[in-house]
Structures are given as structure tokens and as C-alpha cells.
């Protein structure tokens, strides 16, 4: 049987549009001789649909979308479609995360998700009940009956030895053992994470070993709010060896002929090996995930371009590069907003970067507005603004100007702050935190430096070219990469005046944020007690700022977004 793996970029809640995308894939698949098309988890809805699942009108729209698939399906084609199944019950939740088999004669539910993640960014137990039994689909094709084991995303994640943890509950893979399967299918919506693609292949290889059959893995691709889905579907044979690899971070329709019995493939890739042409190296994965996330966020939210403040510093420089790759330089605009404390070097660096990228750069000095604010506030304060108040006013003036331009021109304002700053509150509410999306809000400052160094290296040339960026020479530039970080809000200011050096700060932040380590643990591990307590205090006291921040594209194990649910008023 020829299988088609449809790696689709769904728009959340657009049931009619998503059905059209699935139909288009089915037509291409039928033309290529495929008999069964596999689409990702909740492919009719897009993942994650969140509280859209609670709208009765959308549940009705799902029924119409499924009927349309039945009516317009190419002859001889069958589809496995991710959908939700209402449960006739007054008890909540009253839905299953399910798969439907769609054929010319109708559609029927054939699998229900067993393991429902409610950790990190996931909240499936708010909406779904778990399925109660292993799912096996029998399908007559090619003069024989095929038996497919069906699993949905988390149902494959049952190997504590590989993952370090697993959800309590059933082991769907164990329950499928002894079912005389021909294949195991896993339809997923698994977000990007560094190193996650290799882990998915190892989990599939382990399932293949346990069941003695090939495993077909199909994943969603694209950006939805703060989540980025990297695709990267694949097939492993019964020995756990990769025999098909789909594109990384792009829509893809791939075909695989399921043999009976499955012969040893001629060209084999080890499960831990990065498949040729499918999965980039780590820095390129990170860059492409950010580009995909920003591009989809702007497109799906209806923005006609992007706007950012370009200071001449490394954070805004990286955001400008990502924006030009995601939107095209012709749709990105930057503003320089110099104060009396802005250095000539930074202003020149911003202009040089804009020229290299080919984006429009305008200059709006804020010194006259600073003077006006001094005059306006002096009667209330008894003196002109000074100290931190004066510094924050500069940031807020810049934020107001940027928001005004973005509002007038229908652009998406891009916040340029990084995760280190957001963690310790080294950012200004209604100032540099303004924006519709914090593009690098989940990148520590040290990661920003590392990624920019890679972008400027010869190793990034092919990636830059494919993203429509200048491929030769430095793009960020050594002047930006090597200057000491500074907000330039007072004469001679440096970040190190207010914060520990980022090389000291970031490792402690990672342990506190991503590992949820306690200060006592870090001190016991050898960290300086005074430094840890200082960082811990800054982290806790900045929660009220983070609650008001723009969404950040999630690329780490734990971001300040939907997976971070800390109280504001706490000890």
C-alpha cells in the first residue's frame, strides 16, 4: 500500500480552510497512486485550538467539513484526519481527541487519544477525556487486509528511559503488542524543541522494536501563537532505522510504499543520525524555527509587515535578521530613536545593518519629547524626572512612537527583548516591552550571542541564501557582536552596572527557570550564595512584568508563556 504523509500548516479554528488543505493534499496523493493519506493530530482544527473547542458552532462546522471531505474525496482514497469527537454526556469534559477514517461512503471515528498531556504548554485534560482502549484499524487495500495500530502524539511518549519522565496512565504501545499489526501510525502535533526531533525518532524506533513493525510518524508544521511546530515526519522500519524523512520546518507531502513483509532498505540511516536534507544542525534549526514562527504569526494574524526599533545592539539586530527572513526586507521597517545618550557608534551600527539587510530605516530623535516630559512632570514631582524614572521615560517614549507608527501602518510591532532581561525585569513596561510578538523572548542573552556568531559564520551561508538573506560576509557584524551590552539610557551605561555578567547570570537562570531548581540546590552545587539570592529575588519580583509581556516564540524547555503559570503575589 502506498501511504501519503501530509505535513500541513493548519490555521487554528479554520475548519473549512483546513479541510480544503487536506483535500488538496489528497488530490495530489491520489495522482501519485497513494491509497491512504495521513494528516496530523487535530488537523481539521489546527493545534492547539484551546477554548475554540468549547464553541458549539465550531463543532457543527467540523461536521460540515467532514461531510465535504467525504463528498470530494478522490476515488479509491482514504484519509485519516485529526478531529474531535463529542461525547453525549452532561459530565465534563465531553470531547475526545480523535482520528476519523474518511472514505467515499462516509466517515467514522477509529481512534481516541489515550494519554492527554497537561504539562508545560499543554492543557488537554481541560477539554478531552482519554480513550479507553487501544485502536486498531483494518483496511482492505491491494487485495489484502491491513492492520494499523493507531496512536496520537503523546501515546508514543511512553519510554521513561528515553524521556526522563512519562505521563501516568496506559501504555498504548504495550496494549498494541500481540495485535498482529502491519504498521504503527502516529499522528502528532508536537512543538519544536532543541534536540526533540532526534528524541521522536528514538521513541519511534523503540516502538518499532517492541511491536516488530514499521512506524509512520506525521507531524504538524507551522507557527501557532507562541508555539512553533517543526514537522519533520518520518518512517522507521521494524528495526528502528529511518527509511523516509520529511522536510523540516516546511509543508511537505511524502510517499512511502508499505511492503509486505518489510524488506531491509538499501539505503539505511541510523535512528540518531540527522537525515540528509531533512534536519538542519542545531543553530540553523533554531533560526528557522524563529523565522517560521514569526512568519506564520504575522500571516495568520493579518499583519502586512513588521516594525522594530533598531538600536545598534545585538538583540534588535537579531530580530531584524529574523524579520527580514520571515517577512521579506521590503515588508520590514525599522526606526532609530536616539536620545542624547545614544552613542554615535550604535547609530552607525544600526544604519550599517539596515543597509546590509536592505530594509527601510528612519530616525525619530526623542530629545525634544524628553524635554517636554521634564516640563510636564516637574510640577507633580517637584523637580524634573531623574534616575530610574527618567531612564524608563526614554523607553516609554520610544515604545509610544513605535506603537503609533505600527498602528498607523498596520504593522506588527516586534519586541526585541531577550529571556535574560525578561527573567530579571531588566525591561520597561509600556516601553521596550511594547509589541505584538517577542521574537527572541525565549532566548537567553548568551544564546543570542551564539546564534549571531553562527549567522555571521561561513557555516550559515547556505541557510542565509535559502532564507532570502545576503549569503556572503558578516550580516550582524563584528561591531554589534562584540560591543558591551548597554541600554544607553544614561552616559556610559552598561548592562553589567545593574546585572551580573550574562555568562554568570544565564546558567543560574536556566536552572531556576527550566529545571525549577531552588536557590538552596544551586548553592549546594557550588554557586555563589549572594549571586543566587540576588538573581532569585529579581526573578520573583519581575513576575508582574512578565504577565503583561508580548507572547514569545517558545524554543526552550520552559518559556515565559503558556507553560509558565507562576503566581504574581507570592513569597
Multimer state: single chain
Q: Give the N-terminus to C-terminus distance in angstroms.
A: 60 Å
**Roughly how much helix do the residues carry, as a percent range?**
25-40%
Please indicate the percent range of residues in DSSP E strands (runs of 2 or more).
15-25%
Strand order of the largest sheet: 5-4-3-2-1-14
Structural class: alpha/beta
How would you describe the shape? elongated
State the major sheet: 6 strands, mixed
Computed CA radius of gyration, to the nearest angstrom: 26 Å
Number of helices, where a helix is a run of at least 4 consecutive DSSP H or I residues: 18
Task: Please state the average pLDDT score.
Answer: 93
Q: Quick recap of the structure?
A:
It contains 18 helices and 19 strands. The chain has helices at residues 15-31, 56-72, 160-163, 172-176, 196-211, 282-301, 314-327, 344-357, 367-381, 387-409, 419-424, 445-455, 461-466, 478-482, 502-513, 519-524, 529-541, 543-546; strands at 2-7, 36-38, 78-86, 95-103, 106-112, 135-141, 144-152, 183-188, 215-219, 221-224, 227-230, 234-236, 242-245, 252-257, 306-309, 332-336, 360-363, 412-415, 437-438. The radius of gyration is 26 Å and the shape is elongated.
Amino acid at each position: 500500500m502506498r501511504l501519503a504523509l501530509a505535513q500541513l500548516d493548519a490555521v487554528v479554528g479554520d475548519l473549512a480552510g483546513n479541510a480544503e488543505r487536506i483535500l488538496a493534499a489528497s488530490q495530489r496523493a491520489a495522482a501519485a497512486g497513494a491509497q491512504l493519506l495521513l494528516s496530523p493530530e487535530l488537523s481539521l482544527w489546527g493545534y492547539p485550538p484551546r477554548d475554540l473547542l468549547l464553541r458549539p458552532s465550531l463543532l457543527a462546522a467540523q461536521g460540515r467539513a467532514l461531510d465535504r471531505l467525504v463528498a470530494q474525496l478522490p476515488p479509491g482514497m482514504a484519509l485519516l484526519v485529526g478531529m474531535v469527537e463529542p461525547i453525549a454526556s452532561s459530565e465534563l469534559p465531553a470531547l475526545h481527541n480523535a482520528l476519523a477514517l474518511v472514505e467515499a461512503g462516509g466517515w467514522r471515528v477509529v481512534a481516541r487519544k489515550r494519554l492527554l498531556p497537561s504539562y508545560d504548554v499543554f492543557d488537554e485534560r481541560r477539554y478531552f477525556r482519554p480513550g479507553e482502549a487501544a485502536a486498531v484499524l483494518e483496511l482492505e487495500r491491494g487485495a489484502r487486509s491491513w492492520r494499523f495500530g493507531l496512536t496520537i502524539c503523546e501515546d508514543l511518549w511512553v519510554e521513561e528511559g528515553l524521556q526522563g519522565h512519562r505521563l501516568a496512565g496506559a501504555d498504548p504501545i504495550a496494549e498494541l503488542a500481540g495485535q498482529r499489526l502491519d504498521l504503527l501510525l502516529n499522528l502528532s502535533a508536537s512543538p519544536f524543541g532543541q534536540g526533540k526531533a532526534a528524541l521522536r525518532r528514538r521513541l519511534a524506533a523503540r516502538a518499532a522494536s517492541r511491536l516488530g513493525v514499521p512506524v509512520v510518524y506525521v507531524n504538524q508544521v507551522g507557527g501557532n501563537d507562541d508555539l512553533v511546530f517543526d514537522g519533520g515526519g518520518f518512517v522507521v522500519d521494524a528495526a528502528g532505522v529511518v527509511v523516509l524523512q520529511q522536510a523540516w520546518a516546511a509543508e511537505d507531502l511524502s510517499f512511502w510504499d508499505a511492503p509486505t513483509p518489510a524488506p531491509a532498505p538499501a539505503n539505511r540511516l541510523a535512528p540518531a543520525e540527522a537525515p540528509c536534507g531533512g534536519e538542519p544542525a542545531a543553530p540553523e534549526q533554531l533560526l528557522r524555527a524563529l523565522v517560521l514562527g514569526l512568519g506564520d504569526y504575522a500571516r495568520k494574524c493579518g499583519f502586512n509587515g513588521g516594525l522594530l526599533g533598531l538600536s545598534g545592539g545585538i538583540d534588535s539586530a537579531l530580530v531584524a535578521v529574523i524579520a527580514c527572513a520571515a517577512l521579506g526586507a521590503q515588508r520590514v521597517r525599522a526606526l532609530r530613536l536616539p536620545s542624547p545618550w545614544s552613542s554615535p557608534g550604535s547609530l552607525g551600527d544600526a544604519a550599517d545593518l539596515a543597509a546590509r539587510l536592505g530594509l527601510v530605516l528612519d530616525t525619530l530623535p526623542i530629545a525634544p519629547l524628553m524635554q517636554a516630559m521634564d516640563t510636564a512632570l516637574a510640577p507633580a514631582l517637584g523637580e524634573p524626572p531623574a534616575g530610574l524614572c527618567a531612564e524608563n521615560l526614554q523607553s516609554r517614549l520610544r515604545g509610544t512612537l513605535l506603537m503609533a507608527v505600527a498602528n498607523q501602518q498596520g504593522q506588527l510591532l516586534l519586541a526585541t527583548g531577550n529571556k535574560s532581561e525578561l527573567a530579571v525585569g531588566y525591561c520597561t513596561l509600556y516601553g521596550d516591552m511594547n509589541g505584538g510578538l517577542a521574537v527572541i523572548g525565549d532566548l537567553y542573552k548568551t544564546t543570542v550571542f551564539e546564534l549571531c556568531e553562527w549567522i555571521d559564520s561561513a557555516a550559515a551561508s547556505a541557510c542565509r541564501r535559502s532564507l532570502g538573506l545576503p549569503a556572503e560576509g558578516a550580516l550582524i557584524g563584528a561591531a554589534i557582536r562584540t560591543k558591551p551590552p548597554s541600554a544607553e539610557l544614561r552616559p556610559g551605561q552598561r548592562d553589567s552596572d545593574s546585572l551580573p555578567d550574562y555568562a554568570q547570570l544565564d546558567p543560574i537562570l536556566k536552572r531556576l527557570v527550566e529545571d525549577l531548581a531552588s536557590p538552596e540546590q544551586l548553592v549546594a552545587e557550588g554557586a555563589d550564595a549572594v549571586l543566587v539570592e540576588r538573581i532569585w529575588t529579581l526573578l520573583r519580583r519581575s513576575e508582574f512584568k512578565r504577565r503583561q509581556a508580548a507572547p514569545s516564540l517558545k524554543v526552550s524547555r520552559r518559556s515565559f508563556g503558556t507553560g509558565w503559570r507562576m503566581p504574581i503575589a507570592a513569597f
